[in-house]
Design goal:
single chain, 126 residues, mainly beta, four-stranded antiparallel β-sheet, 47% strand, globular
Length: 126
Amino acid sequence: QVQLVESGGGLVQAGGSLRLSCAASGRTFSSAAMGWFRQAPGKDREFVAARGWGGSRTLYADSVKGRFTISADNAENMVYLQMNSLKPEDTAVYYCAAGRAYIRVVFTTTTGYPYWGQGTQVTVSS
């Protein structure tokens, strides 16, 4: 059974940093795209960052480009999202997502990811 578990969320002041972690189990995700999405209250879930199979490509939403970095430790089946220079508008529940194996397309939409974690809350105070 595929399972994704996020951790690392919390409360931080504007300008601060957090690192989110996603532990994957049930299969090896080094051969799949991995993504981070977020959902603020009353809003749709939106794309944040994604990393292609084997790190071949990384994509970021314009709103986080230059501040957030997605990375992975394939040996440990972990994916990370380093978030720097956080802003109040970054406040949301952040979700880790995994794509289908051996699909090289890096999706920026939720439909490209069949596997999801339960989410971790990030709150940025002004």
